[in-house]
Amino acid sequence: MRSWIGPLARRLHFYAGLFIGPFILIAALTGATYAVMPTVEKALYTTELSAPAYQEAGTVQPLSQQIGVADEVMAGREGYALAAVRPAPELGTTTRIMYSHPDLEASESHAVFVDPVSLEVRGQETVYGTSGALPARTAISQFHRHLGLGEPGRLYSELAASWLWIVALGGLALWILGRASRRKKRASRPRGHRASRLHASLGVWALLGALFLSATGLTWSAHAGANVTDLRAALGWTTPSVSTGLPAAEAADPSSGGSVDSGGEALTTADTFDAVWAAGRDVNIDTDLVEIKPAAEAGSAWTVTEIQRHYPTKVDSVAVDPRTLEVVDQVDFADYSVPAKLARWGVDLHMGTLFGLANEVVLAGLALSFVALVILGYALWIKRGASGPGRAPRAGALTRAPWWGLVLVLGAAAGIGVFLPLFGLSLAAFVVVDGVLAWAPWRRDRRPTPSAELT
């Protein structure tokens, strides 16, 4: 088996590192930057995020009054509609009054930051997603995701995520085969020059992180991500969501402000935010980090959703009838299936929010280790060439494989390629190019150059 598995792993590791390395490098650099942005964001947007009057422990004003102040700021701006409210989660922080607009990108809102005690407007910014990322963090996130090129740019990150685990496992195979071939007394010491030892050791230590980031990163990708979604749906691993449907006889028109309290007295839409939030707290909303959304359309309930992404995870949600203030549906994180919980934790761990600052530091360190691995890999490739970049490891590994080995490799490549389309297409391109280079009749010297060990 060593006569073909080792050379195959070496050649695959070489080509993947050579051609996919730049994509992994960009993803790692932007990922390391994004990992620390939650902390950096607090320093960049101190004015918007801090509430001096609230820091002095004054009386918090009702949400209706805070919304009224924000509405005054937004008065006269066409196309903006009140979309959600995030009450100040803790002492010294601001409330976010969030507005939608047709010109905003998907998941974006225009937020007005209000001191909940003094009702001072502390600023306005465009925020993104459940994380509420402010412009600086959003810019890093979008560049990490698609290089700022929109949907076509997502191909780069999908390529990086599709190949990262292949590169990592290929490196592990080389490391294991290298250790097995050494004498027992030297088994614990990788051989080779210093850069090679560092590349091997760093790769082994970063292996689990690479596999994790590759798997979770693929869930956001365009093509492989769709397959992941379909697979989760087929296996019943989807994340449950609260139902906002109301019986037709009880449906309220959210644009009319025609909700009523338990005494039958009419409430304004702003007043309803306070009432709906109180209704949610009476059931299972036990954290102050929440988002309150009015009904999206007539016949729908309002929702109160916990958005605490650090551990312990709090993402419970309730649907509240705005007419009766009755909770008509609820979803608790405790009731999630195990796969759904793992998916939630995996996403939050990938984004650096699950364990706060510690998560940010570890994630940034892991991403920077990928940067070092890519740079070291290119340095080794260049250094091993006699008068330029080193040649590829010897071809023809599969010609020495038994029939079952050939079937296993080709079957695995085909299966993975179907599930990860960009991996399959790029692998096919590698095979074609490699075949042309290996067997081209115009090559003067077709003698293979033995590959130096990466370990």
Automatic annotation (TrEMBL):
Membrane spanning residue stretches: 12-37, 159-177, 198-222, 361-381, 401-419
Keyword Cytoplasm tagged: no
Transmembrane is among the record's keywords: yes
Keywords, sorted A to Z: Membrane, Transmembrane, Transmembrane helix
Protein known as: Iron-regulated membrane protein
Species name: Zhihengliuella flava
Source species taxonomy: Bacteria, Bacillati, Actinomycetota, Actinomycetes, Micrococcales
